[in-house]
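Hi L.,

As promised, Glucose-induced degradation protein 8-like protein isoform X1:
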Amino acid sequence: MATSKKVITREEWERKLKEVRIRKDDMNKLVMNFLVTEGYVDAALKFQAESGTESDIDLETIKDRMTVKKAVQSGNVEDAIERVNDLNPEILDTNPQLYFHLQQQRLIELIRHGKIEEALVFAQEELAPRGEENQSFLEELERTVALLAFEDANNCPFGELLDVSQRLKTASEVNAAILISQSREKDPKLPSLLKMMVWAQDQLDEKAAFPRINNLTTAALEDPAV
């Protein structure tokens, strides 16, 4: 037999929210953590000056990491690999998956620019041997090489590999690896807290009808459905 949910009105909910006290310093630290982890150096420097919130690392050291990330995002993967090795050769030596994904991105860029023969040679010499040692690498290589079978690679079932989102995915993986090598958290705290909030709302929704935040961009409360 279904039981009715407790209804929490907007007025009651907002009153409860106002009773919660969050220190401004803690909020500022969350913002700084996000800016530092994602590599927004200029914004972090400005935020530090305006809020007085100090970063726990030298903000100048972020620039090298961001140079690598931007190189991948612009498709200059070879330069990114060289810069990663300049930062710390062990990053790629100890992370075969990251190295494979960077090489895969190099192959994608060759295909993007119509360098078919060069792409085939690169795939055979650089990626095929790694695919023979790892089934998941082989599957990813096969998906990438499939782009060559289509006159218009964008019409390939795996055409999403040519999307900017693929570059961003690889760039994020490199960024995370560099952070880990520096004994830093690879993910900012703020998105994790937002995911936790969504989870908490889902749990509460089983027991009560309350004003939810469904749009994380506006953070607007929506009246409970009753």
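Residues 24 and 51 are 10 Å apart (CA to CA).

Thanks again for sending the construct details.

K.
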